[in-house]
Design brief:
The protein is an alpha/beta fold. A nine-stranded mixed beta sheet has the order 17-16-13-20-21-22-23-24-25, with helices on both faces. The chain starts with 5 loop residues before the first strand and ends with a helix.
Length: 540
Amino acid sequence: MTSGRTLRIAHLYPELLNLYGDSGNILVLKSRMAWRGIEPQVMEVHVDDRPSFSGVDIVFIGGGSDREQKIVCDKLLAEQAELKAYVEDGGVLGAVCGGYQLLGESYLMGDEKVPGLELVDLYTDRGEPRLIGNIAVESRISPQPIVGYENHGGRTHLGPGVEPMGKVLYGHGNDGASGYEGCLYKNVVGTYVHGPLLPKNPGVADYLIARGACGEQGHVRPPDGGRGRGVSMEKVIVFGSLSMDMSVKCRAIPHRGETAVGSGFLTTPGGMGGNQAVMCSRMGADTFMVGKVGDDAYGRELMASLARHGVICSNVSLSADEHTGIGLVMRGEGDNRAVYDPGANATITYKEVRAAIHGLAGKDNVFLCQLGCDLEATMQSILCAKRNGLFTILNATPARSIPEEVYQALDVLCINEGECEFLSGISCLDDDSREKALRFFERRGVGHTVITLGRRGSVTLVDGKMVKVPCFSVETVDTTGAGDAYVGELAAHLCFGGNIQESMVYASAAAALCVTKVGAQAAMPTFAEVEKFMKAYKGE
């Protein structure tokens, strides 16, 4: 945000929607803008006014009683098309309590179903008891938990492309059951938290100001104005498989027809998509999982594991017809073999992924996927992500054919030697063949191709020349999650502005740390661990 700017705030119907001291929210926005050298201009829109959202940077809607809420809804329905266009074009909108309910398809006033503004894919019904009390919410839009008071009989339900504002730490939230509160859609923030909201939560005010000033590239700055991992507003959207991995250790992988005695049986959350999402999150990226699990114990445990690692699962759906995906892994000394039953992963549709992309996408955010789900849905999702301005990364495993138009939509293709040979027909036996393979994918329009070579490191093209990044030498315990650790850190490092070669170095370090532990998600290192490892390697 630069000094000398002017931001225009449209405060809608303050004489009707000021039940929770919402004028205090406007005062906070004005003060925090002025501290940054931004001139605030507040335009109050009253009942007899015809609002225009042209040139407006932030729209704010407060809360009121049922009667006032209905009056405002009737007024705004006449402006629905313009307000919808404002939101879809990235306009910033904050809505509290009654204003939050107005955003959706409908809400209930007594037994009457009242049409909403349909700005966000959500709806509100009613339930008992009324949800009243203090509330605290952990959210990516605020460096501290969002706190306040809630008092609502409504139960708000989010559609598949809408992200919750955050996870309830204390209190009830949207519906008293899901554990989530509020909504985030494009640059819209809706919440039941009041008291009023912004004086108690300056981080949320800064988020709205940053988005108003900088659009999708706004950042929440920590108090010292610096920026590091964990405070970025970049997103990584991971579409991929989720499975429960069952593994057993053996001295050597058995040959055909051979039965080996094993030990150390483990049941651990996994799946390529889930593992890579956990790695992205542990590296500090705001990570959103798109996938499907069965309505069974394994599915519930997978979602709980992702949530424990900070991955947002509001776009993970349940299949009533298919079981959760299962992976069977044999852990040999320095090697492993796996077989995979996709289960519910094979049933997720392009329509479901498209809804998530439309709800979460922002310019230069990252879309990461693999080939463990329905192939057609995956290919169409890559094209959709590219059309929506996302930076696209495909980890082409398991190896399957890729259409030419999808190659052209890829910013990064990450493959191992076997996948490279399947896709290009070129065996990576030496530097000449590896460079030939890299140029094969370059001619097809891929931005960067990364070929991983196991213990021999990885290669890519930088400024037309092949670059080799060595592997780090460590004592190997379990290689199960190594590839996913590599890809997850590669995506996260690129998300934070790293170049391809630097990202590959950090990805190699993450993979090296991962193989020193047993399991997949449980073995993923944190960014602090990777940084410490890198400093030790450099002798710092």
